[in-house]
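[Meeting: bench + compute handoff]

Bench side (C.D.) handed over the final construct sequence. Compute side (W.E.) agreed to return the predicted structure before the next meeting so the bench team could plan truncations. Sequence as handed over:
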Amino acid sequence: MPRKAKSPTAQSPPARKPDPTESVTLIVRRGAQRRFDKLAEATKDLPATVSWDRRHGERRTASHKVEQERRKTERRRTPPFTWQVADFVVVSVPSDPDVDPEEDK
């Protein structure tokens, strides 16, 4: 009897290999002191940094009426589930010294 081929959906995606030039930043929601302390302790020997969310509130308040909105679409994305459930988000940043982060602006 011929062997059935596996469907592409049955295969799990290949695991992402760690990139040694990539650093990880964990941003913790304001006020989540215990979460911050636990993450800082757990990552002390890893190439990761833990920092507080620096936002103080909604910055998108108009002080005056805008004649014409120039944005075509909403640029903000829904935060990852870890922001709501665990009070932090993981941000991976390539740490290539030859790349200027201001270059794209």
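W.E. noted at the follow-up: The beta strands are 22-28, 48-52, 88-94. C.D. will use this when planning the next construct.
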